[in-house]
Amino acid sequence: MLTAFARAFRTPDLRKKLLFTLFIIVVFRLGSIIPTPNVNVKVLKETADAAKESNNLYGLVDLFSGGALLKLSIFALGIMPYITASIILQLLTVVIPRLEALKKEGQAGTTKITQYTRYLTIGLAILQATGIVAMASTGQLFSGVSGSDDILYETGLFPIITMVICMVAGTSVIMWLGELITDRGVGNGMSLLIFTQVVAVFPAQFWSIYKTQNGFVFAVVLLVGLAIMAGVVFVEQAQRRIPVQYAKRMVGRRMYGGTSTYIPLKVNQAGIIPIIFASSLLYLPILATQLWPNTKWLQKIQPYLQQDNPWHMAIFFVFIIFFTYFYVAITFNPTEVADNMKKYGGFIPGIRPGRPTAEYLDFVLTRITTPGALYLGLVSLIPMVAFALLNATQDFPFGGASILIIVGVGLDTVKQIESQLQQRNYEGFLR
């Protein structure tokens, strides 16, 4: 990997793309530390630190914003509104025929769906920013922490609207920065910004472990983290290759087909989406306990909502397995794949085209999704087990969605750099 980066910096045009990507990332991080108007930065920092010590949930929520959410910066919402909008549009594509037709139109349809995603992102950003600012103005953002009522200088209508506009504008700028990286940089812009948000909190997490624990525990955490990362890399690269043979056919005076290829079915076909779904669903009762703290039945279930509670871990694990199967069933349609193969003269050796091929693909996908779902569930439980058994803080850096994002985006970016290097190295043979 290091060799690939060294060769990339020796290539002039690729070096420009890499430097441009780094510049955008620096701009993105600068926006994450600039507070919105009307925020008392000193009181906010003290209150946020106290909240993270009393409730691990704040550290988990802050992870996906790169530390910007609990600072109420102009980039406080981060890339999450765009991710949520993308997931919603992807799910609606299966339900709404108009969106499904747009998806099949190629580049023009994809551009239209991207435009809808942007509009939905702005709408979600307005809702989230309004909710966060309203909770900050009423002292409910850090419920139960002293000083949470003094985060904002003023709680009038105009200051609140100004803060909401700044946060929504920040989300729009983040979308633009991500598209700039995709068009003029290296890798997928949105994925790299998510990667940046997750990695940004790692130095503080390591330093917290080093201060609160001794050097031996810090070294053990590093070794365990490297082992976890190696295991995640192994599983993320694992795939079942279904061989596909295309028969020869004449189109006009040309002959097509006669080639062999394969359908790669990854063990982790769903990515980190099931973890996001499960976390969001479990966050709803926690949010309800903060909004209505005097409700009796919410007070009874509140102990079970703590991350170190065994019931919380079990429910979280079951939700991840369920959403893994749910998301894979939505995103991969065996019947559609089988019909496309039949249309272009493709077949799986030993399997008849059409319905038998669809049933075979569904059988293989169901079997391969089982270890993928268990793997996602176990990786997601690593931080919770650390909380419960090792008495770790919310700063435990390895496991969960963070390690999956780091490995996934890192592998994808390195592959894109290597592919661009191969194009330039093989240029002389293609002439």
From TrEMBL:
It holds the Pfam family SecY. Keywords: Cell membrane, Membrane, Protein transport, Translocation, Transmembrane, Transmembrane helix, Transport. GO terms for biological process: intracellular protein transmembrane transport; protein targeting; protein transport by the Sec complex. The chain crosses the membrane at residues 18-35, 72-96, 116-136, 156-178, 190-210, 216-235, 270-291, 311-332, 373-390. InterPro entries: SecY, SecY/SEC61-alpha, SecY_CS, SecY_dom_sf. It is a multi-pass membrane protein. The keyword Mitochondrion does not apply. It comes from the Bacteria. GO terms for cellular component: plasma membrane. It is found in: Cell membrane; Membrane. Component of the Sec protein translocase complex. Heterotrimer consisting of SecY, SecE and SecG subunits. The heterotrimers can form oligomers, although 1 heterotrimer is thought to be able to translocate proteins. Interacts with the ribosome. Interacts with SecDF, and other proteins may be involved. Interacts with SecA. Belongs to the SecY/SEC61-alpha family. NCBIfam families: 3a0501s007 (TIGR00967). The central subunit of the protein translocation channel SecYEG. Consists of two halves formed by TMs 1-5 and 6-10. These two domains form a lateral gate at the front which open onto the bilayer between TMs 2 and 7, and are clamped together by SecE at the back. The channel is closed by both a pore ring composed of hydrophobic SecY resides and a short helix (helix 2A) on the extracellular side of the membrane which forms a plug. The plug probably moves laterally to allow the channel to open. The ring and the pore may move independently. This is Protein translocase subunit SecY. The gene is secY.
